[in-house]
Structure formats: C-alpha cells, structure tokens
Amino acid sequence: MPGGVLAVLSTTVVGVAVPDLVSEFDAGVDAAQWVTTAFLLAAGIAIPVSGWASVRYGIRATWLVAVGLFTVGSLMSAFAGDFGALTAARAVQGLGVARSNPSCSPPWRSSRGRNA
Fold first, then answer.
1. Which pLDDT belongs to residue 17?
2. Is the full-model pTM beyond 0.90?
3. Residues 41-77: pLDDT tens digits?
4. 86 contacts: CB under 8 Å, gap ≥ 6
5. Which residue has the higher pLDDT, 42 or 31?
6. 21: buried, middle or exposed (CB in 10 Å: 19+, 13-18, 0-12)?
7. Closest Cα partner for 72 from 48, 53, 97, 103?
C-alpha cells in the first residue's frame, strides 16, 4: 500500500511542478516533459522484470529493493544540479515504483507459497 501511494504522489507532484522546472532549469516545456516521460518509461520497462524478480527472489526482497531504488532516486532528484541529472534521477525513481506498486505483484504469488 505505501508503495502505491508513493507512485501516485510522485507522478502528481512532478506533473504539477513542470512550470517551475521550466523556470528553474531554464528549459522549454517540451524538455521539462522528459522528466515525467523518463519516470514513466522506466516504470513501464521495469514492471515485467519486477514480476519475474518477485518469483525468483521473493516478494519481500524485491519490494525492499524497489523502495530503496525509489528512495535513492528521490535523493538524487532533491540534489540534482541540472536538468539531465534530474531526468536520470526520475528514471531511477521509475525503476523503484515499478515493483513498489501492489498492482504489479505476480498473480500466482500466493499459489506458490513464496510470499516472503
């Protein structure tokens, strides 16, 4: 549950902040949209991988790695000095959000008995 809230909150905050990103980093709106695009692309690519990783390494371990990636990406975003660093940090966040969202759990997880 907390992972799903992080995903929604993170996407919403950046969507609202695009005008401020344009003025802070002196970039165009089309360039500022890449911050959101990098996040969504990374999440979209990592979702199938996270399902496999949950089966291979366990749901708890995969979730902890995902939350750790999201936290590292958040810290990188907070200290990003330029637009490229911010875009890369958002991609790292997207990798973490892919598994931290509960809807990304593999449907067969409870039938295999590997919930831990």
1. 84
2. no
3. 999 999 888 888 888 998 889 888 988 999 999 999 9
4. 21, 25, 35, 77, 80
5. 42
6. buried
7. 97
- For the chain, how far is it from start to end, CA to CA, in angstroms? 16
Class of residue 40 by CB neighbours under 10 A (exposed 0-12, middle 13-18, buried 19+):
middle
* CA dist 62 → 18, 73, 97 (Å): 31, 16, 11
As given in the structure block, the two tokens for residue 83 are 């637009």
Q: Please, what is the Cα angle at 9 between 3 and 25, to 5 degrees?
A: 125
**DSSP assignment string, 14-69:** HHHHHHHHHHHHT--HHHHHHHHHHHHHHHHHHHHHHHHHHHHH-HHHHHHHHHHH
The three-state (H, E, C) secondary structure of 6-17, written as one string: HHHHHHHHHHHH
pLDDT band for 2, please (50, 70, 90 cuts): low
